[in-house]
Write the structure tokens for this entry.
Amino acid sequence: MSKEITSRATDYSQWYNDLVIKGELADYSAVRGCMVIKPYGFALWENMRDALDKMFKDTGHVNAYFPLFVPKSLFEAEEKNAEGFAKECAIVTHYRLKADPAKKGKLMVDPEAKLEEELVVRPTSEAIIWNTYKNWIQSYRDLPLLINQWANVVRWEMRTRLFLRTAEFLWQEGHTAHATKEEAIEETVKMLDVYADFVENWMAVPVIKGVKSANERFAGAEDTYCIEALMQDGKALQAGTSHFLGQNFAKAFDVKFSDKENKLEYVWATSWGVSTRLIGALVMAHSDDQGLVLPPKIAPLQVVIVPIFKGEEQKAAIDAKVQAITTELKSKGISVKYDDNDNARPGWKFAEYEMKGVPVRLAIGARDLANNVVEVARRDTKEKSTVSLDGIADYIAQLLATIQQALYQKALTFREANITKVDSWDAFVKVLDEKGGFVAAHWDGTPETEEAIKEKTKATIRCIPLQNTLEAGNCILSGQPSTQRVLFARAY
RNA sequence: CGGGAGGUAGUUCAGCCCGGUAGAAUACCUGGUUUGGGACCAGGGGGUCGCAGGUUCGAAUCCUGUCCUCCCGACCA
């Protein structure tokens, strides 16, 4: 089988699929729109999940778990308060199979086993969670309620793509209830900061924090905050969202509390989530035509050691040395694998681990033993150097930190080079078509104009940056006055 | 959901037009030689050709239906 990865320049979609599949992250499954996350890919997700989970707990949140099935009536309650929720869902209508009398060995849905009320497989858990919170909240003393759930959700997407948009995906969803509007907004922004912190410092992907325009906002939210990242093909990707829900859900599900003055009030709510889509972002932000490039802080495997030997005698000497190196690395919390599989030759292993994005590779042979050195190869720059075995663990620890930083810097430099200010419609279209990336342009603030721009160019407003500087100008399309630039891009 | 391309060995694919014993490469197993950037030789195992019907003496091949995948578009809390 060809192990070649399609060039980014040739076909970006195919390049992406190659990276995910040949990098052992995931594969297609026999189930419509769903993927299988392989052990290596899942180990990556676990590392991301654990880091995020710790950040949630450090900010006062706890985990819980709510049901997969949501009675249809609960969705109707939600729909009443905010129309426009997407309705592509999987729906359970029956609860039993039976042998098909017409076809031996086949099963059929038992028509006798029809559910009185259909169950929706959760596309998100607001409905079931707020219906539950109603029973948990009576007094201001019960607030704030700061709960997160790690779960799978199902959305019957028309078109799917590994990690970026699959029918079933893994995510976390935080749902919080507060006594005041100010506190809820503070929570929304705090969690956006947590996401930005994680994506930038662990995934080494720079993001822009901002607020969504009305068109891009979550249907039940007053405000949707987001972090937007830029991929190597110039398209933007929403990496996480944090919603200020106002009292919309409290009103839909009748969640009230007595305040200090014994007055009944609706609670103020937030919700926030990131998903396995982050893995897609990771792949498209850093990888190259040789395969995945993973940031050391979340890589399932940080260091791989490949022995190069002729005969058992050399192998034994190398084994002994590697044993010492491995112990030292592990004592520093560095994950390391010694690949002494004799069936694969060194060259094959080099290519294999590059494809899987292992940050650092050590190659050690008789020649190196004699000189008390080891060959150290960086995945990100492909640089190789010969390093003394004395103090090698410190050197590697330092190198991993350097790689983490270098990946972030490289992605940041790329993004900064791909934010373009434009002041005319012609320039706007030209930049989108020829350069891509974020386009900073004036917009008159109306949904109609945004829609018209999307219609003409497929570009949407990714966000209105939080730290925006105010600047008078005229809308790129309508010419109406505007007070600030917003970021447009074509997006995933 | 519209348009296009596909589903044959673990994997990538040929065979299909023009029906007649199921193929290649690679991976895997055995033995040997190898090992500093995807090794080589010899031998071997492995597939109800996505599924269900139909036509036919005979179907991977023709027809109908259906499921699934990929690409483009629409959709996307």
Q: What stands out?
A: The longest strand of chain A covers residues 168-178. DSSP finds 13 helices and 27 strands in chain A. The mean pLDDT of chain A is 93. The first helix of chain A runs from residue 12 to 22.
